[in-house]
Amino acid sequence: MFEEAHAHEHVDEDMVLLQANLDDMNPEWTTYVAELLFEAGANDVYWIPIVMKRGRPGVMLNVLTAKEAVPAMERIVFRETTTLGVRRIAAAVHRLGRRIVRVDTRWGPVAVKIGYADGEEVQYAPEYRECADIAARENVPLKAVYDEVRRAYADRKTTDRA
Questions:
Q1: 84-120 per-position pLDDT tens digit
Q2: 150 phi and psi, to 5 degrees?
Q3: Residue 41 and residue 70: Cα distance in Å, rounded?
Q4: What stretches of 2-141 show up as alpha helix (H) in DSSP?
Q5: Residue 37: how many CB atoms within 10 A of its CB?
Q6: Residue 146: which H helix or E strand, with range?
Q7: Which residues make beta-bridge pairs with 49?
Q8: With the C-alpha atoms ordered 130, 38, 80, 65, is the resulting torsion angle positive or negative?
Q9: Alpha-carbon torsion angle 85, 76, 45, 142, nearest 10
Q10: Cα-flanking dihedrals φ and ψ of residue 40, to 5°?
């Protein structure tokens, strides 16, 4: 049986995308910096490879966060990276309605995240962390776990419609 929806489809208006171009930072630090930003409440953190002036390779740090969290995110970026400046770009984020269901697999129940637009299911995805834990514990390829979870969800949808 489906659990209650986690969130209704909506638009978050007061978001900010922070950006910093970095060409002199040790790339080994990127995971650490991202983890700190997520722990501090960032909605998303991602890195884009870029070519900077004079052809130097670099990365662009992108942090999507709520407007009120900008000072905390900037403190982390300035303390933990080599940037001398951060761009602030106002953003709005359209978020799909979501809910989580659990499907039965040979390894036990696994969560599947379902996305809804205008009340219609438009996508679903097995919960990565649970699938990765199963793959490691059972010594099976992650893609095999994903395949079984997706098949179980598709079978469940067919059964629910019948």
A1: 999 999 999 999 999 999 999 999 999 999 999 998 9
A2: -65, -40
A3: 10
A4: 29-39, 70-80, 128-138
A5: 24
A6: helix 142-161
A7: 59
A8: positive
A9: 140
A10: -85, -5
DSSP 3: P
Give residues with Cβ within 8 angstroms of 131, minimum separation 6. 110, 142, 145, 146, 149
Other Cβ atoms within 10 Å of 78 Cβ, number: 14
Supply φ then ψ for residue 31, to 5 degrees.
-65, -45
The pLDDT confidence band at residue 156, using thresholds 50, 70 and 90, is confident
- Dihedral sign for Cα atoms in the order 26, 31, 37, 39: negative
Which residue shows structure tokens 């978020």? 95
Token code pair at residue 140: 């099976």
**Nearest Cα to Cα of residue 66 among 18, 11, 14:** 14
Three-state SS at 14 = strand
